[in-house]
């Protein structure tokens, strides 16, 4: 029979390892998302004028993108839960 404290120590070690591997990756993704938002903002300055978009139309387009992202997020996670993540 195992000592209850041993599982706790093992869990702490595993979680530390997971944290050290995942947090830098998440930070990188956050930085890339930030750069993407900044680039879209700068592109909108001239793109809206060239294409004849009003700020409302540009906002609607950005909103539709995020609406699609939101709508497919839940089903994709449910499928991922059933099928599992495979590499």
Describe the model:
The chain is mainly alpha-helical. The chain folds into 2 domains: 1-52; 54-87. 89% of the residues lie in helices and 0% in strands. It has 2 helices and no strands. It has helices at 4-51, 55-83. The protein starts with a helix and ends with a helix. The mean pLDDT is 85.
Instruction: Measure the end-to-end span.
Output: 35 Å
- Secondary-structure-based class equals mainly alpha
Q: What integer is the average pLDDT?
A: 85
Q: Low-confidence stretches at least 5 residues in length (pLDDT < 50)?
A: none
In total, the number of domains comes to 2
Coarse shape: elongated
Helicity, in percent?
A: over 70%
Largest sheet: none
Helix-strand topology string:
HH
Radius of gyration, in angstroms, nearest whole number: 21 Å
Continuous helix count:
2
Beta-strand fraction estimate: under 5%
Number of strands: 0
Please outline what is shown here.
This is Nitrate/nitrite transporter. This protein has 87 residues and is mainly alpha-helical.
List strands and helices in order, with pairings.
Blueprint: H1 4-51, H2 55-83
Which key phrases capture this entry?
2 helices; single chain; 2 domains; 87 residues
